[in-house]
Amino acid sequence: MPLPVTAIFDIGKTNKKFFLFSKDLKEIKQEYTKIPLIADEDGFPCEDLGQLTQWVREKINEVCVSTEFQLIGLNFSTYGASFVNIDENGKPVTPLYNYLKDFPDDLLQSFFGKYQEELNNQETASPTLGMLNSGLQLYWLKKIKPELFEKIHYSLHLPQYMSFIFTGKHVSEPTSIGCHTRLWDFNKNDYHAWVKEEGIDKVLADIVPTTHVIPTKICGQLVNVGVGIHDSSSALASYLVRTDEPFLLVSTGTWSITLNPFTEESLSVEDLKNDCLNYLTIHGNPVKASRFFLGNEFDHQMEQLNKIFGKSPKFYKTVEPDPLIIQQINEGAIANTYYPETILKSPFIAALFPENQWKPQTYGTFEEAYHQLVWGLTRIQVASIQLAKGDSPITKVFIDGGFVHNAVFIQLLKQSLEGYSLEFSDLPLGSAYGAALMLDTNDVN
Fold it and tell me: In angstroms, how far is CA 225 from the centroid of its own chain?
């Protein structure tokens, strides 16, 4: 008898992951792939939506033709701040724009000329992030590329588009709407007034619960297909079922995002300046979050270190924490000069690193420069945790994602967070498991 399985796609900016889970949510299979970027019409790198869609379909087809498995469920966890804009036939009419694409300064000033920046930031719980405020992507299209905007029948958040290619249903859901899109008024619990005034709401699909399931014929039989979920909220859901104790979740990867679902504090102006924001849980409740570009900065700096010291790209994985180097850094015997080069210069970053004296070529060994780099990133991580924690007395911290495999990072984090209870999880499953839970929510808090 074929084994009943649920298929989950966990689609990150860098790695695309495919999982099969048994009915009791045990991992049966996992695969990873990377899809090379292409360029949008302006020449800026972006996701190859065609290749991504083809890969997803191929993986499901492999399950369909397998005699080993019977597909009973399908869901998607993906990165946020990304819309797929489709026409009335369901075909994309624009590229999947990269949220790192520059947003025109004059257009941003025009927007804030109509919608006062500080007030709009607080009401939408979104710092000013340009294209990362994905609602502004639609505003940009309407103002700069009206001929394309006119072709849009629906703008679907990426998780919901992945669901759409199987179900044909156009929907929105809370976790994708709530991830710094600038679309949602957290005070009114509705789309913000600017969204309606600009007519953006006309291309947004009806909102359904994140736990909504659409029975769809796949492999010649009905399969429960979820509507997708934003990856950070998905990872959070997988922890909420594990403990009733208040906790923080630090999800590391391209971004490091610290989530606090146990606070009732409103975001302050200072919070917003420090790149704090609110997410929405699957139940539509606010989650205070702080974040910084951890993985992106790490990769950027590693390119420099590898070139300077003649190391292979994966050499750093062999480096173990060196107590002597760490002691020398702490005592200032090795100059503390790391300076973030791709991370937003928010007030708390500027306070940690007031001037740039980072010269990795002056270090005697790769190991010294590497420890210095990770030391600096750990300082940012600790400060980011404190921002999300706020005044709450939480001491339990879950840490998952790619950086739990970085021994130097983990050692320095443990040293810096004495008095906290830290639990490290090897969770390539984190977001995927949360997405699977959305198809069977009996255990979800």
Answer: 22
Q: How far is it, in rounded angstroms, from Cα 420 to Cα 400?
A: 16
368 in Cβ contact with 377 (< 8 Å): no
- On whether both 235 and 370 belong to a single domain, the answer is yes
pLDDT of 445 reads 36
What does the alpha-carbon distance between residue 153 and residue 288 come to, in Å, rounded to a whole number? 33
Maximum C-alpha span of the chain: 67
For residues 248 and 2, give the distance between their C-alpha atoms in angstroms, rounded to a whole number: 39
Same domain (yes/no): 346, 419: yes
Range of the structural domain that residue 344 is part of:
231-432
CATH code of the domain in which 261 resides: 3.30.420.40
In this prediction, the residues of the chain whose per-residue pLDDT falls under 50 are 441-445
Angle, helices 323-331 vs 407-416, to 10°: value is 50
Q: Among residues 188, 163, 180, which one has the least CA distance to residue 172?
A: 163
pTM of structure:
0.82
Let me know: does 254 contact 296? Beta carbons within 8 Å: yes
Query: In sequence order, which residues have a C-beta less than 8 Å from that of residue 389 and are 6 or more positions away?
Result: 248, 258, 260
For residue 237 the two structure tokens come to: 């859901």
Angle 372-378-384 from CA coordinates, rounded to 5°: 145
Strands (E) located in 122-204: 154-157, 184-185, 190-191
Distance CA 176, CA 63 (A): 28
Tokens of 107: 């257009």
Give the separation between CA 150 and CA 138, rounded to whole angstroms.
11
pLDDT by residue (tens digit) across 372-391? 999 999 999 999 999 999 98
Please tell me whether residues 201 and 261 are part of one structural domain: no
**Contact yes or no for 176/160 (Cβ under 8 A):** yes
